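Example record for the data management plan.
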Amino acid sequence: MSLYLPPQVALHTAHGTPRVSEGVARSYEAGIAFLKSKNILGESVLILPEDTTMYFLAGVHAPTRVYAFNPGIVAPGRMTEELFREIEANNVKYLLWSNRTYPEYGVPMFGRDFNQELSRYLRSKYQRVGPLVPGSYEKWGGLSFSIWERRGDEPQR
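Corresponding structural encoding:
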């Protein structure tokens, strides 16, 4: 049995040129530009549930001590409460929320199968503005991101 691997394209960054699928390249190009533009304005962006490479490629620090939200990373109770306080203290204005799933852990969906408390908190504080790359999932399949903005702020256009 052979696996289907989509054609690879170059993702040009300040740190090198990895070859990735077209969808990942377009999502990362848009994500890196988004992170840089918000960083210049002093606005914080939290990426969920992971894709921490994007912080590195954009030259931007994650706004919280915890920067990956894979299954089992955020412990309930004290650690979750500290994360909430850190999000507030660092005035996280935007979320880049990916459709990344975790079938290899047996709990595929962030917010449904794991980290429900974190997902409820974020959904109460942020609203979905739209896709990072319009039509990205339909066009390329695979990885896509949605932009979420803190409630009470003007929607990003």
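Summary line stored alongside the record: The chain has a mean pLDDT of 90.
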